Amino acid sequence: MKTPLWYQKLLRWTEGDEPGLAEPAAHVENPPQPRAEETPYESGPSLLQGAGGPINRVLTKVFAIFSCAVFALVMLATVAYLPRFGDQGNAPVNETSRRYIEQGVQEVGATNLVTNIILVYRGFDTYGESCVLFLGATAVIMLLEVDSKNTTRRDRALLRRGDELDRITRNQILGHVTRVLMPVILLYGLYILCNGHLSPGGGFAGGSILGGALILCENAFGVEKVRSFFNHHVYHAVKVGALILYAILICYTIYVGANGLPNIMPLGRPGSILSAGIILPINVAVGLEVACTMYAFYTYFGRGDL
Amino acid sequence: MIVFEYLLLIGLLICAVSVNFTRHLLPTVIIYATFGTMLSVIWLLLRAPDLAITEAAVGVGIDTILFLLALRSMRRHDGGKGGEEP
After folding, report:
1. Model ipTM?
2. Are the CB atoms for A120 and A280 separated by under 8 Å?
3. Residues A205, B65: C-beta atoms closer than 8 Å
4. Contact A177, A264 (CB under 8 A)
5. Which regions of chain A are under pLDDT 70?
6. Is B83 inside any structural domain?
7. How far apart (Å, rounded) are the C-alpha atoms in residues B8 and B2?
């Protein structure tokens, strides 16, 4: 069967044969080859596939099938313990959801009930998720950052040459299409971000659309263009600032709610854009956090630098 | 509409099972993206548009990019032979 052209191109790209980063590697006598013997990656696959003869391989397969079966059984048993869907008997579940549906709009002020629940009623959980994102991005930076301490001069020269080659062979069509599309994408992302308390969407979805827009910008115009408005300082300021803003807002809400104090955040008229108290600022904070994290993942996986 | 839903569910099953039988990693990523697209349409049909938007943006868009980049940097570190089944 003939494989389509786009698949062949994608395969070549993932194998690093496309003119991009790997082209200069071919010029300098294939640098990855001598390192391949001493890299710890060698032990990885052999450990997974059973280092020894055929008996080990069979054992590995048996163990894989066994663990899959046990996991599936545990999951199915857990499902069997869940209460029946829509049953009158499971009162606690019904009470909570009825409270959310009937009084959510008066108590919190957002017409999108899902946002009400995940950002205010269950706001502490969502704050934990944001912290997980922050920790994930920090771990990626720790593991994948390329600086003068963990690379040789030749590697850095290769990276610079790859950037230069990238600039020369940049795709003109992609640039022009991006110039037309970028305002639309940004507007869509901002709409989903800021309208999260009125319509489906919110911080996570809008933030990942904004992050995707940044990734597209990096691909179309090169990394220097993105660095001119989004460098290390902006990244750290936005990321830490958004997380701290979120923490302050959620702590304030929990403190006020637990002590029965009056909440000074105005709830506004349900349905207007400036309403629902803390939800709009929290959505913006979550969106900025997610956008920064997505772009940082992309750049650190790709080139090891922001 | 219910037929469409069943078709999507069958497609999900086919994708989830066929991941186990692919020998290379790139088709796995493509199948995963297909899985996410169908799942986001199913969320939409089940009237969960919040989840549908998030699945389409994060699960299909960002995750696929990250997987492809990880695949690429794996090849670069391994000299082109790691990560593949023998």
Report:
1. 0.74
2. no
3. no
4. no
5. 1, 16-53, 85-86, 88-94, 263, 265-267, 271
6. no
7. 10
Number of domains making up chain B: 1
Through-space distance between the first and last CA atoms of chain A, rounded to whole angstroms: 41
Q: What is the pLDDT of residue A16?
A: 64
Reading the block at residue A277, the tokens are: 């108290």
The number of CA neighbours under 13 Å toward the Cβ of A51 is 4
Q: From the list B57, B75, B78, which residue is nearest A208 (CB)?
A: B57
Residue matched to tokens 């790139």:
B26
Closest CA–CA distance from residue B35 to any residue of chain A (Å): 18
Is the pTM higher than 0.80? no
In a domain, B85, yes or no: no
Tokens of A276: 């629902």
Phi, psi of A169 (to 5 degrees): -95, 25
| A114 part of contact set with chain B, CB < 8 Å | yes
Domain of residue B53 covers 2-78
| Contact: B83, A49; criterion CB under 8 Å | no
**Alpha carbon of residue A136 to chain centroid:** 9
